[in-house]
Design brief:
This protein is mainly β. The chain is built from two helices and nine strands, in the order βββββββααββ. Strands 1-7-4-5 form a four-stranded antiparallel sheet, with no helix packed on it. It has a three-stranded antiparallel sheet with strand order 6-2-9, with no helix packed on it. A hairpin with a 2-residue loop joins β4 and β5. The chain starts with a strand and ends with a strand.
């Protein structure tokens, strides 16, 4: 697959004062953006897979949208390329959001 995937969810925060809120994604490929309550989070860290959501989260129910856009690797180097006789090493790559452990793929830390 090569393209864009959009993940939707919601979460509830009971505390009234939120000093710091960080979203952490276990594994994500390739680039991602995050919106909370319809507002895009500024500059999510594409290397550490984190986004600072401080100021976007409020007490009560919040909505979250994570958009992941892959590169063209899987599209360009798919089975058709190999059967066309092009001698390129190809390993399908994961796409989207996933966890390498038994834990949650997306974590939210609120203080």
């Amino acid at each position: 697959f090569s393209g864009k995937g959009v993940y939707h969810g919601s979460f509830t925060v009971s505390q009234t004062e939120i000093r710091n809120c960080i979203l952490e994604i276990d594994q994500v490929s390739d680039t991602f953006t995050v919106k909370v309550n319809g507002i895009e989070a500024p500059f999510p860290d594409q290397v550490m897979h984190r986004a600072n959501l401080t100021g976007l989260v409020h007490s009560g129910e919040n909505t979250i949208e994570i958009t992941v856009v892959s590169n063209l690797y899987n599209r360009l180097f798919d089975a058709n390329t190999r059967t066309a006789g092009i001698p390129l090493p190809y390993r399908p790559r994961n796409y989207g959001i996933w966890s390498n452990s038994d834990g949650d793929a997306v974590k939210l830390y609120i203080r």
